[in-house]
């Protein structure tokens, strides 16, 4: 009987561990998907959601930025401080191990970041 209990416990534990569940790791490099050439936003984060990044505006400036963030699985929040003084706020969700989906406070559209 004791072995049956251990086997059931093992099976139930494995059943709860889904490969489609979001990874608990946000550390790494993430890039925003853009539908037009010349624009980019790439951030490199530590596990807490803080980091640095680079940006390029289509037919405009490019430079660096600082990311001050928090990560409480699955929620990600960032304050992006650009080298020219602009500040943006982003709130999103770690959808899976390779995607963060959310929006910037000054935008109505959804944004997706992909792990690189």
Short description:
It is built from one helix and eight strands, in the order H-E-E-E-E-E-E-E-E.
Write down the oligomeric state: single chain
CA-atom Rg in angstroms = 18 Å
Sheet with the most strands: spatial strand order: 1-2-3-4-5-6-7-8
- Give the CATH topology: Lipocalin
Q: Please give the largest β-sheet.
A: 8 strands, antiparallel, barrel
Mean model confidence by pLDDT: 83
Number of domains: 1
The portion of residues assigned to helices is 10-25%
Secondary structure tally: strands: 8
How far is the first residue's CA from the last residue's CA? Answer: 48 Å
Taken from the alpha-carbon principal axes, the silhouette is: globular
* Order of helical and strand elements: HEEEEEEEE
CATH class: Mainly Beta
Tell me the strand percentage band.
over 45%
Low-confidence stretches: 1-23
What does this structure look like?
- This protein is mainly beta and 116 residues long.
- It has one domain: Beta Barrel (Lipocalin), CATH 2.40.128.
- It is built from one helix and eight strands.
- Strands 1-2-3-4-5-6-7-8 form an eight-stranded antiparallel barrel.
- The radius of gyration is 18 Å and the shape is globular.
Layout: helices, strands, pairs:
Elements: H1 2-16, E1 28-32, E2 40-45, E3 51-56, E4 62-72, E5 75-82, E6 87-96, E7 99-104, E8 111-115
Antiparallel strand pairs: 1-2, 1-8, 2-3, 3-4, 4-5, 5-6, 6-7, 7-8
Keywords for this entry:
116 residues; mainly beta; Lipocalin; eight-stranded antiparallel beta barrel; 1 helix; 8 strands; 49% strand; globular
